[in-house]
Amino acid sequence: MSRIHCERCLRPQAHCLCPLIPSLGSRTRVLLLQHPSEVRHALNTAKLAALGLRNAQLRVGEVFEDLPELLEAPGYRSALLFPGDEALPLEAYADGQDDRPWQLVVPDGTWRKASKLLHLNPLLGGLPRVTLAQVLPSRYRLRKAPQPGALSTLEAVVQALNVLEAPQGFDALLKPFEALIEGQIAAMGRETYERNHLR
Fold it and tell me: Which residues form the DTW domain (predicted)?
């Protein structure tokens, strides 16, 4: 007999995260493009970002046929939030600059899958690329980062919004993420966690 799942956060009903998910407004729009392999991932952080931000949209797929319309969001200027040599560091919104807020386009998947999304959707490569000038350490204690400074999708979105919209903060988005991680640590047992993840 399968467990009943929450239709909103997709977690088993007994572990529903909805009470921890905020409903935050933001000047910045966030467009999350999720690789299908991430949808059923236990730590679906793009889903948490979309649920916690009122100005966010989550799309799942490999090829996004309506990408031109998505990128032409009226009142916004689109940029790809993804590291790279040509990526410019994000800065707080300032008076006198282009007063249109960003639409941050965020590919969600492993590095390989996110890179595949960029390859399969060439329009993404034509966007200005932005990144975080300073990356705070990841709170994702259950995985080995593929490279220094690697973040989950949710953490990258939170850090980007904290920079762009300072002094407004978006750390409340991390509460369900941290609860998920604590729940997984509890399920595996603290001793197993310490043996396998604290080296």
Answer: 2-189
